Amino acid sequence: MQDLSALFAQATQHCTQFADLLDQEHQVLLDQDMDALDALTKAKAPLIAALIADEQALSAQCEKLGKPASHSLTDFIGSLNAPELVAQHADFLTAAERCQNGNLRNARLIRHSQHINSRLLDLLRNQGEASQNVYDRQGNASRSASGRPISRA
Fold first, then answer.
1. Which residues pair with 106 in a beta bridge?
2. Among 7, 13, 24, 92, which one is most buried in terms of CB atoms within 10 A?
């Protein structure tokens, strides 16, 4: 069980590091700093590989300890009657949830940004509802789009 304990500690550490990168990524997305975003993407790649390796090692160790396929990991850890292991598993789940929440938060921000950029491009192309009759065929502001100039709005 020491091996399982060490694996949970390692996986928790990797999850925490990944969640920290996701927090940094969130700020970089808000700042729209593409160079920093590229650097963070490169920094995330080895951690993703480490997390995948952690998952495989945890699965192999649990199988080695006789985890039935029908049991969840939480049920199996609870059945081992090892309070320290249960606590480590809980810490791991908390760290993994932090990763998941950070990833979902960043994905929503990216989707929102893509939506805004798409609408702006539609406006520039004179497409979509928001841009109906904003520009004429030559790309000039349409006279029918507004009865008054912006300076008088």
1. none
2. 92
Q: Which residues contact 54 (CB under 8 A, 6 or more apart)?
A: 7, 10, 11, 14
> Per the confidence metrics, is the pTM higher than 0.70?
yes
Say whether 80 sits in a helix, a strand or coil. coil
CA distance 37 to 51: 20
Place of tokens 């700042």: 31
CA–CA dist 100, 126 (Å, integer): 38
Closest CA to 54 of 109, 99, 6: 6
Q: Do 92 and 12 contact (CB within 8 A), yes or no? A: yes
Distance between CA atoms of residues 41 and 85, nearest Å: 32
pLDDT in tens, 89-148: 999 999 999 999 999 999 999 999 889 888 888 877 777 655 555 556 666 666 555 555
Partnered with residue 141 across adjacent β-strands are 135
Q: Amino acid letter at 110? A: I
| Beta carbons of 128 and 122 less than 8 angstroms apart | yes
3-class DSSP state of 141:
strand
Give dist(CA 15, CA 40) in Å, integer. Answer: 15
CB 30 within 8 A of CB 40: no
